[in-house]
Design a protein that fits this description.
The protein is mainly alpha-helical. The chain is 71% helix and 5% strand.
Length: 451
């Protein structure tokens, strides 16, 4: 069971690793740099509906693994269409490319919650508690994410020539996948493989005893979502999940363009970090993999109140390190910001999903994961990312810059320090307010092993 789920998570997050952190660079090169926030906010827009609906369906109508496979097939096909368009158009048209990407997200975003539902159901079927087993399985999602990032960072394809390089001096360095639509094709291939694999899990995850339940209640009806919003404790947690959801998309959307912009700064133009932003960013995922094992320990030692607040403080520290770091004498700050990401991500996202799983009734486990996605990756990420995009666009803009190696690149130049400080202060304030407002009836022990 552990091995099969580990492979699922490797493929599931490998799809995202192919493009998520370097997508902003592709948009910048294609002339949509000022619209990066809209593309990352799209994750939030889709998460307002799609994950919760699919979670509801997986609870009542079809096994989550089968629905997971269907969603991946459709997402893979749509991403292939995005690659076909982007590879045949040097300048991307927002009115064409954005709807294609939105359609991809409509199918892909539910798979994040459906993977969790599939895993939790299999774990329970084996008599285990998710908090004891899930972190060691989820770590393979990080491994897949990192492996995909390393591949697109180094691989290039130009005029029939395929190879790998880390050097900006290489004649084909600017044809690496991290800058081209090939990142989208790689994601499509990962998605197809994941779809084929997910369907093999159906025997372990068949929905039993749910088809006979009454189906006359709407997903957004009083009797369904009331389970998550009627209790003050859960209601407050979901509100702050929304407020914290913006943190991850700011990082995903703007971190690599930020690091790459140093290639246009004379002092740092020849540094290895400036030319390998995707690989440097992968240190975040490595840290995430190492720290995911701490989630279970942290939830036993402290309450979700403490763990969640610590995650927000870690986000604040990450942004402060971004504000003052650089690829030269400040490289250690960039590296530290990647290490801090492990705590920031896991103590918010993984701990949050485990908390909601523990709060959900047996008949609404899938819906619970979808609701968590709706609040964090939906409401919070969509509104917050758009505001963050306006903040960054106020101080920074895309410019054509000739680098020290002679390559002419479109880079996101400007005053990056101010936006990062603003995001750091926001995360810190949210952490303090959450800690003061949130309370639990049982601060400890709810995540201990239960027979």
């Amino acid at each position: 069971m552990r091995t099969r789920l580990s492979i699922l998570y490797f493929l599931q997050f490998g799809i995202w690793g192919c493009y998520l952190t370097c997508f902003g660079q592709l948009l910048g090169v294609g002339g949509l740099g000022q619209d990066i926030a809209w593309f990352y906010a799209a994750i939030g827009v889709v998460s307002l509906i799609s994950p919760a609906v699919m979670g509801y369906v997986s609870d009542r109508m079809i096994s989550p693994s089968r629905l997971l496979s269907i969603c991946h097939i459709l997402a893979s096909a749509t991403m292939l269409g995005a690659w076909c368009y982007a590879s045949s158009h040097q300048t991307l048209d927002f009115k064409v490319f954005y709807p294609i990407y939105l359609l991809f997200l409509l199918f892909y975003m539910p798979t994040l919650a459906l993977s969790n539902t599939t895993a939790f159901r299999m774990i329970h079927a084996k008599g285990h508690q998710p908090v004891d087993v899930f972190p060691t399985i989820r770590i393979w999602g990080t491994v897949g994410f990192v492996a995909a990032m390393w591949f697109v960072n180094s691989a290039y394809w130009y005029d029939g020539a395929f190879g790998f390089t880390l050097s900006d001096a290489h004649p084909y360095s600017h044809f690496r996948f991290q800058y081209t639509p090939m990142q989208l094709l790689t994601a499509s291939v990962f998605g197809l493989v994941c779809a084929c694999y997910a369907i093999t899990l159906k025997i372990d995850c068949d929905t039993k005893g749910l088809h006979g339940q009454k189906q006359n209640r709407s997903i957004y009806g009083k009797g369904v979502l009331a389970e998550f919003f009627s209790k003050r404790e859960t209601r407050i947690f979901l509100v702050f999940a929304a407020l914290s959801g913006v943190c991850l998309q700011i990082s995903n959307g703007f971190a690599t363009p930020f690091i790459t912009h140093f290639a246009g700064v004379k002092e740092y133009a020849n540094t290895l970090a400036a030319g390998n932003a995707t690989m440097l960013f992968s240190l975040s995922q490595i840290s995430e993999g190492a720290c995911v094992l701490l989630v279970g320990l942290a939830l036993r030692k402290w309450s979700i109140r403490v763990v969640f607040a610590m995650g927000l403080i870690a986000w604040a520290l990450r942004y402060f390190l971004f504000a003052f770091g650089n690829p030269g004498d400040g490289l250690w700050m960039l590296v530290m910001s990647m290490i801090v990401y492990g705590l920031a991500f896991n103590f918010l996202t993984i701990a949050g999903h485990l908390y909601i799983e523990q709060q959900s009734s047996a008949n609404n486990k899938g819906l619970g994961q979808g609701v968590m996605m709706l609040m964090s990756n939906g409401i919070g990420a969509s509104a917050g990312t758009l505001v963050a995009g306006m903040v960054i666009n106020h101080w920074c803009s895309w410019e054509s810059v000739t680098t020290a190696t002679g390559n002419k690149l479109r880079l996101f130049m400007g005053d990056w320090e101010t936006p990062w400080i603003i995001f750091a202060i926001y995360s810190l304030v949210i952490a303090i307010v959450f800690y003061l407002c949130f309370s639990q009836k049982k601060d400890r022990g709810e995540y201990s092993v239960r027979n």
